[in-house]
Amino acid sequence: MARWTRDERLDQPQDFVRFMMEDYLNKGGFKKKIHKGEEVWQEGEGFLASARFIRYEYSDGLFHLEAWIGKRRENALKGFVGALPKKMFRESLEELIRLLHQPLPEAREGEAGRVVTIQVPDHAKYAVPAMVVSIVGIIVGLMLSPLGGILLGSVGISLGQNARNSSKGNIARASVILGTVAVIAALVGYILNMIFLFSFFK
């Protein structure tokens, strides 16, 4: 198995860790599934962007995390191929782990109903770059390079997926749509170019 793994001694309450993981997984669009006989959390089906996977356990204060990209073949979160999506995924998990270590205020006598504020991951920083890359992907795919349009569109989709449930979720979701349009536009541009070349040399 080619997986990115981390083992952390947290010694945090079980309900806190469960809340943080559910928040991260829901924001990232992960769904619980059985993959190759194993219960995991999966985001995406690997059509336009690689599917992302997470598996974690928390027991006796020890947190174990496994993450990888790829539905058929597991890819760790390092390497040249798909470097940007891997880097973003890894950085988001590292931020999650950092926040899992955050100190929790101790409950005091008579404060049973007190609201406790904790930090949770927010990937809003990816939303605007996702929009820009997706729009550039449409232009490049139609006018310059179909391959460039596909690559930029795929990056826009990956960035948008990371931020779609953040505080800038509307921008991120629009970016995913535009990234998809960029990929389709690039494919259409490629087909039109091939038809033109075929007609020209006929």
UniProtKB/TrEMBL annotation:
<keyword id="KW-0812">Transmembrane</keyword>
<keyword id="KW-1133">Transmembrane helix</keyword>
<keyword id="KW-0472">Membrane</keyword>
<feature type="transmembrane region" description="Helical">
    <location>
        <begin position="126"/>
        <end position="155"/>
    </location>
</feature>
<protein>
    <submittedName>
        <fullName>DUF4190 domain-containing protein</fullName>
    </submittedName>
</protein>
<feature type="transmembrane region" description="Helical">
    <location>
        <begin position="176"/>
        <end position="201"/>
    </location>
</feature>
